[in-house]
Amino acid sequence: MLKLYHTPVSPNSHRVWVTLIEKGLEFELVEVNLTGEQFKPEFLAMNPFHHIPVLVDDDNTIIESLAILDYLEAKYPTPAMLPDNPKDLSTVRMVQLVTVNELLPSASPLFPVMLGLSKGDEEKIKQAKEKVGTIFKFFESLLDERPFFGSETITLADAVAGTVVPWLPRAGVPLTDYSKLNRWCDRILSRPAWEQTKATPEAMEQIKSAMAARMSS
Known about the structure:
The protein has 217 residues and is an alpha+beta fold. The chain is 52% helix and 8% strand. A hairpin with a 2-residue loop joins strand 3 (54-57) and strand 4 (60-63). The chain is globular. GO terms for molecular function: transferase activity. Residues 85-211 form the GST C-terminal domain.
């Protein structure tokens, strides 16, 4: 059986978690407490870079969330979460990579504020919101009359962006100026995979503790 080593609030973990559910796969969840469990020898044996998530499929161990998503799509292709059309495929890949390489780094100053850990540096917060707004505008331009990015059915782009974008209005970046993205976000959050993986208060406290420890070190 598939086994996912994860942390519930991590977007890197969450995108794999919802994809497993969307594909209807059976899997076991193993929660990793990021206050130290990621440095234990048994975890480092799976991932020497001490990051989550890690997916174990029998004798195959995969690290890095985008690699895991590609593995799941290749080995378990039904239902398909990548379009065949080249233009649509490029849209999916752009959303995935912009989320990972642009959105998450740009939004990082907002996360302590969102969790109530810090008011943050006013200038850095302003710059972060501007960068996030630029990305939201780009995502808005990629959405058409179809309900998902580049597809009538949910894709890996939705799994990646859909585990980051919905958090950002809590950090003071509203979606009201991006009508298509706002409707997409509502659509994503109403799906059973997102309902089943909603962060519990305990999970929120765990991530707050881990972030507070990093901020104080």
